[in-house]
Specification:
This protein has two helices and 25 strands. The chain is mostly beta strands and about 290 residues long. It has two domains: about 130 residues, Pectate Lyase C-like (3 Solenoid), CATH 2.160.20.10; about 150 residues, Single-stranded right-handed beta-helix, Pectin lyase-like (Pectate Lyase C-like, 3 Solenoid), CATH 2.160.20. The longest helix has 4 residues. The N and C termini lie far apart (about 40 Å). The mean pLDDT is about 95. Its EC number is 3.1.1.11. It is found in: Secreted, Cell wall. It holds the Pfam family Pectinesterase. This is Pectinesterase.
Amino acid sequence: MDAIASAPIQSQSRYFIHVKAGIYVEIVEVWANKTNIALIGDGANVTKITMNRRVPEFQTNETATVSVKGNGFMAKYITFENSAGEGTQAVALMSQSDRSSFYRCTFLGFQDTLCAHFGRQFYKECDIYGTVDFMFGNAAAVFQTCNLYARLPNRVITFTAQGKKSRYENSGFVIQNSTLTAAPDLQSNKSQVHAFLGRPWFEWSTVIVMQSFLDSIIDPAGWYEWPGHRTDELTYREFGNWGPGAGTGRRISWVGYKALNQSKEVIPFTVSKFIQGNSWIPESGIPYTSGLY
């Protein structure tokens, strides 16, 4: 995208790029020296960036249709798609941008749709589609008021594969006030699907699902074992969820899993605490809730 190439280097102020309605078939890279870039589409239903790279032709990180490294990145009203299809890793967007934010965007893919790779990230009112580990990475990311859609053809769905590698890293995924359900093409076959909130990519994997609607596709066990991966050091938490898949009575019995019932236990995972959002999200103009709902 030529507009990104011509953007200023190490900008200290917001640099806006209007992405007009249309389908853009290309690989887009926002390099580390392109800071505070904002891509503003005309609506996720009319503005799409798409490409079809996939493993094994490319390494997983190289499959990303859009790859963001410059800090302070923001996107609004755009669809990011990897159209390679199901069966192998194919990333729609990879962000390793600290203080990156996404508002009313759509992420379309199957396996490894969205790579929240590194840094503090915020997703608001976004739609994310996938099958296997379709939200993965080692960022500290909050997904607030988002729709997370399990897609056909898989019968086993894993929403997250969070990659925290050490107790000392500030990373984890927080899913808050969101909806975890089946995509429209799967609604009539929901009973055939077993969906899981996540599986531990690395031993310190951290995922908190709170104040969200969990549809009937969520398996009673809740979380999925990854053979050969430890479960004693991870942090998997559920708090204040509702819906037919929200019952915790039959959840896995891992040491690292807890169903919480006191709000004080999840305050550390709110936007203001977990990603220090009050210090940087207001500039974006994206509405957000800093604490609990």
